[in-house]
Amino acid sequence: MIPNQRGADRGRWRDLPGRYGEWPSVKRPGQRACTARDRVLSGRMTPRRKTHQICIGDERTGIVKIGGGLPHRDGTPTTAAPVSVQTMTAGYTHEIDKCVAEINRMAAGGADIVRVAVPEQKDTEALKEILPQVRVPIVADVHFHFKRALEAVESGVHKIRLNPGNITDRAQVIDVIQACKARGIPIRVGVNEGSIIERKDKQKRMKELGAVFSEQKHGYLLAIMITKLEEYLDIFYEQDFHDIAISAKSMDASIVIDAYTEISKRFDHPLHLGVTHAGPKETGTIRSVAALGGLLINGIGDTIRFSYANDPIFEVEDGLELLYSLSLRERIGVDLIACPTCGRIQVDLFTLIQDVRKQLASTIQLPLKVAVMGCIVNGPGEAEGADVAVFAGDRRGIIYVQGEKVANVPEEEILSRLLAECLAFQDKVRRGEAKLGDKKVAIIPPDPLGELGSGLEKIASGNVEKISRSVAALTVGQS
Ligand code: SF4
Questions:
Q1: Which residue ranges form the domains of the chain, and what is each CATH number?
Q2: How far apart are CA 55 and CA 57, in angstroms?
Q3: Residue of 344, 391, 454, 467 to mutate, ligand 1, most atoms within 8 A of C-beta
């Protein structure tokens, strides 16, 4: 059994030998909970697949490395770069001011790389004015017209995306490869399920691969995708071009998992993960997390893009959150823990959580762990593991900073006091007077009994007055 690190079950694993139960080997001084990184160390999360590394960007934007672990072709060793987050602008590239503003907003939100569409020459022309105004590497998304790729390279773009489904002429592909080679620009070969075309002359190879994948639900499709990639990449290899990333997207999460898993066994280029046309954010999140999370846990994936029919800033936020959750990136900003509430609640916690989330997002840059909990059942446990925490009772909340109680305030003061404590704690950490993750006092339930005007006796007796929860606060993440 994996021991529960939080909540009412804490007592169970506390009694196990070693602080972390069945994972004693990953315990480190000051560590509060087992993380995905620990699972990597203990073999529970597959280490990242080694790939050749590509680099995109320039001196002005900074260089973003993708993949790594295998030596460069000249023998220089590389180490795996952090998994990067990409998005794509939703507006027209030729509307220069709007495009610059959108790119800069994505970069400010945490995007490492931004892609733009270049369907017309006026778009590739616009890149000449856009590139000097942005501070994040830009990828030109090219479909159908190989000349757009040549123009984008000429304009100084940092990377090209080609679709083997719609730029198929060998001579044209070679022109693009040579242009990118001359400028040291990588190319992503992006096979999309929706745009691959079955070619008659590849029937033999597809038959072979079809037999290899015959046990798999999507065997025939995988055979087409891999055949297409092999055929296309041969052109690159013949030109001695190896600055390549690969993607193989579908709107079906299970196809995405199968396709990338098979591709990861056959090619050592970095992989750009994504579920294409994932739909509105509400369902697109589930599809993307199901596919990308599964692959990343298995060590597959070097850069990711969520694609939503929504403001692309959500793609960036959710992509980062996935990487934070898997400990594949160092968190920037607050790690917010909150209970889902239940029939024991005696404050309007939904509203409180949303207010805390919004206000901390703009004021806290350090990865503070902040817990907002509804009652003493799980509140003390989470407060113990957090840097700053509140757990509520009968229209009151007790606030803790690293395990030390600092306030017991009425409901209407919880938000302001919690924010003040978070800011003060962040300042202390910056001055070197406190350390994230330290804890001075163990909070042993039921320590707060009585102080909250509720406590276990009241909860146990069922004598809990109903409060009205703000349903509006349920529209999470749209601000
Ligand atoms: Fe858990 Fe208490 Fe929140 Fe209910 S109100 S979910 S018991 S912490």
A1: 1-45 (no CATH), 54-325 (3.20.20.20), 333-474 (3.30.413.10)
A2: 7
A3: 344
